[in-house]
Specification:
The structure holds two protein chains of two kinds. By secondary structure, chain A is mainly alpha-helical. Chain A is built from ten helices and no strands. In chain B, strands 3-2-1-4 form a four-stranded mixed sheet. In chain B, strands 9-7-8-10 form a four-stranded mixed sheet. In chain B, strands 5-6 form a two-stranded parallel ribbon. Classes of the chains: A mainly alpha, B alpha/beta.
Amino acid sequence: MSGIVDDVGQRADEAESRLRAHLVSDLDGGFAALVREHRGVVYSVARQFSRDRSDAEDLAADAFLRAYRALRGYDAGRLETLRLRPWLLAILRNTARNAARDRARRPAPPPAFETADEPAGGASVEQRAESADVQRELGALLAQLPEVQRTAVVLRHVVGLGTAEVAEVLGCPEGTAKSHVSRGLRRLRPLVENRPGLREEGRNR
Amino acid sequence: MTGTTIEQALAGLAGEAPDGLEDKVFTGWLSTPSRLGEVFVAFTTDGVQFVRSAESVGSDPDAFAQAYRDRFGRPLRPAGRGPAGLAPALTGRTGGPRLDLRGLSDFEHDVLDATRRIPSGQVRPYSWVAREAGRAKAVRAVGSVLARNPVPLLIPCHRVVRSDGALGEYMFGPEHKQALLREEDLDLDRLAGLTDRGVHYLGSDTTGVVCFPTCHHARRITDAHRRPFARVEKALAEGYRPCRDCRPAVPA
């Protein structure tokens, strides 16, 4: 492992322990910092478990509120050892599963028309349109995976968690997490290869 | 080659969280003047959720925050500005901001809805609220719901009084209830005078309508035509029709 990676890891650890100390001293203030720090990751994962952006926002908000309620019951000792990001993402996963169970009980309204999320950076109109198509297609492909594989792939490749952290979120051994990721990717590959739009996107890069 | 494609495309699915996310997680709070003096107000994007007088929490924002969290289990953050309509509703008698009453039971909703309809300067008994809420026998339960009213002033629980005419309890103390009602130009002395004589309803023998004494229709009955009643059933038996505005009884 290179020194740079160690540095990055160490900085992230320091940020986490600062957050934990903040939560111990001032729960609401610390929680505001926690949300600021992890909102992007939580939302990006929530987005892959939701029909549209508004559902994703609701799901992410719901998960944060559940996390807050849990934190209220934790003493300082528990807070100081809590690994915040995987803990938050495990709550998000449970929240998403509960929401999916509720949705299955009552039929959903037809999906509203919506545009894809704006990609970062100044892309051309053509690039934007193409990237939007890719996002939509890939999202639809992901939705066809079994839940555990989809979660593993999203955590590993959409938000870039290491396999150890993916395993922590899924509550399984690292080897199992790794195999969920690779099995998910293996199932995605043929689907992706059948979509010319996605292949071209890859070649252009 | 294809593997790289998938992984790159997947990484492209990550996005920025929308600004609205934090508004959905955090409840805003502020302190503002009201007819009860300074009050602390908590509100979500759906509307006002919790109001307590500063006096009732020892003028301590932390005590207010603690009471809020214990009841709603949500994080608070200071807010610069309240929802539209908040200030006039807290300092005056009219209008009102949107309210966030999620998490209340159907009965609590019905009780608060009925209470909300009582006009400024008028009072109704707990038994009236119970009947309007669809559970005529649940008079004591109405008292419990109103004692926990999350948004006093905005839902005027100070306008609900005992059936015997006494003003009854108020979450911030009966003296505040009295002061609020006087401020709404309710003549408490006149009301007490009627109560002392066992009068709880007033009829007009020209219109044939029977009202609660504080109803604006009852206040317009001239002395010569005012008929006092202890019980509304007596008025109905004499052919009086219950007022459609104050609804002392359900119209036949």
